């Protein structure tokens, strides 16, 4: 082998050059290191947050047949702390004109080389899946997920979970009803497993199929150009030429109807391109209007842009994932979503990471804020019409991600009776438009008494801290991500958008029966803004990546008044059921009003598109904050307190990035139940101490959140703690455990924990007990007495026993309750499993096949249910009297004491137990 000879001078120069390269690679590219040792199938650990919250309340139709084939299942991998920090820095640099990495977008392969898994780790994970009888169908170009398929029986066995058919209303789906369990070394690098259920997202479109004979106005592309000042751009050649918009879908569409829409609207012939992933979903009627409007109106806003319709059986798991994994287009529009709590923490983390990848590749994602006003978790679906919110204030994801631009809705507000003639012509002009000028706007809210909720989504995220760029006049000091960012007309009644689909547009926009297909919703705002971004990209000649830092820079500049229409009228408040979440007794509606500047109904308002596009490059994107990850923890003392007393709060902020040891600086803001309290606290040596008054707090649980601002090194973060408040003067009770920790070997029984309840202020009544876990686990519990009876001024006790095993795991998806009378039969696994088979058989004859499925905890019959309850429904595998040991780990068990006394204003109090299984 020939050796390279290097002379001293050249050697020195080469050494210096190599050192520079080495330093550059350390700064700009973190190469993936091995993170998976040998996969030991015997050492298992449960995942957390991988049971869909939508399983809650669904009817269980029994286990899926073992032979049923599941497709598009995906292992999603996390990043190391070093990769997280490096990606955060990259995303900042890509938006900083002074950085050498400004707009230096990555390919999926380049992303994978820096932020994906090591190839050897992917090989190990792939081999493990294959060993379980599963077929690997794809390894991501970005090296951060593996897609596979297989029969239900193999999936259940590989992940030690149970997959059932469930029904919600008229909709039938399948879903895993217990947390998947992975080999521990694999579990430590997996953020989630998608595809274990086939729940679909809700399209945020409000169809309205009516005739225009009444004289109502409906929007054609020409109206969009006039109202939002796009005519000069379109006529001047800024039409999105050379830019591709990827539209996400989960149904087949008709290209001929898209062609008809463009022809009727006076648009050039520009046929969309179709891209199918997986098996075709066919034509799904409930998704068709959404898909057609997305394709037609993104193409109307940017008439020369290339429209790529990406579709599959699942708009998020497949369509969106593949659009990012294959870097299909610089702009991605998705008009689907769900309230944050409906996703589950695992999915929120998984897809938020995917959106960061998209931004690093220069892809901009736009999404709707929803059509149920400020109450996004309450929405009409199928035959169910929701007319009053019961689930409280909530926002929609993906829109709530800091890496997605969130689109809200407005509606036209012509004012006086002469407004129609002031703003609308009696005939149609170019591109079928009849609008004469910009029309004043209000926040979209078409909810009327007894009607389905219909208004602009908006509010405060429960999951994401406020990004550094989200600042300006009107932006709430709430320390969390707020939505929307901007808005466009979204009304369906006043005034909706025309589309072509199915039998419509046989005579102009009309169907043969003279009706029109008219739609509204934030689903229309979203593709329109995608088209606007295509105009920006054509004008600037560059991809954008995350659009939000520039949008907020424009809103904070002298260009605001010319580029935005500040909407200051209206609200997105919705009727609520008195006494439900966020709707105290006597309250009739909840939500937010439009105000000067930014607001939680319309964001910064709508756009003067010509000025917005022309001014885009005149501002510098706002900073995204520090690059290193911070972690915030909150300790409250005491956690059980009588109203009127103060709670001491200690906040500790530390580095969450390997190798970064600098002590975080900056400030912390305390919030109680989402509302800021007191002045900001300044960190000293990474900690801050404050107090929270409980004088105005009601009896029961309250959340204290600490929001860390971030500094030049660290990004912002959130931490929280829960306190339990007891009423100061009205009848109430306290709940106190004898110890806060129970430790036991897997398969064993923990020592009982005594809980004492005490009457306060003359409380008299009975109190029942229950227990639940934040994660599903194969464990059981019993209370020695439930309910207990309290006399005025008296006390009572019950003993909680935790069992680190569960019988007949095929039936239970979580921790189950043992019968009180059977608590004495603690004879280990065999006794627990053996004595109940006869009783289980009797129950199978008595219980209906369809049963309600709580997501976190299956509560048994309080006086008759034994541990050996075996399967009443079908079971594809496993013994009916099997015992599953609890996986080793540390779990949080929440004990709830609920009052049935009419003399108490408190419904319940809670206490937590740390359950350590070794």
TrEMBL record:
Q: Which Pfam families match?
A: Big_3_5, Pro-kuma_activ
Annotated region Disordered: where?
Answer: 44-63
User: Which GO biological process annotations does it have?
Assistant: proteolysis
Q: Does the keyword RNA-binding apply?
A: no
Which residue ranges does the record assign to the Peptidase S53 domain? 218-619
CDD domains hit by this protein: Peptidases_S53, Pro-peptidase_S53
Transcription as a keyword of this entry, yes or no, is: no
InterPro entries, A to Z? Big_3_5, Ig-like_fold, Peptidase_S8/S53_dom_sf, Peptidase_S8_Ser-AS, S53_propep, Sedolisin_dom, Tripeptidyl-peptidase_I
Q: Which UniProt keywords apply?
A: Calcium, Hydrolase, Metal-binding, Protease, Serine protease, Zymogen
Cofactor names from the entry are: Ca(2+)
**Coiled-coil ranges from the UniProt annotation:** none
Stored SMART domains = Pro-kuma_activ
Protein name in the entry: Peptidase S53
Organism for this UniProt entry: Terriglobus albidus
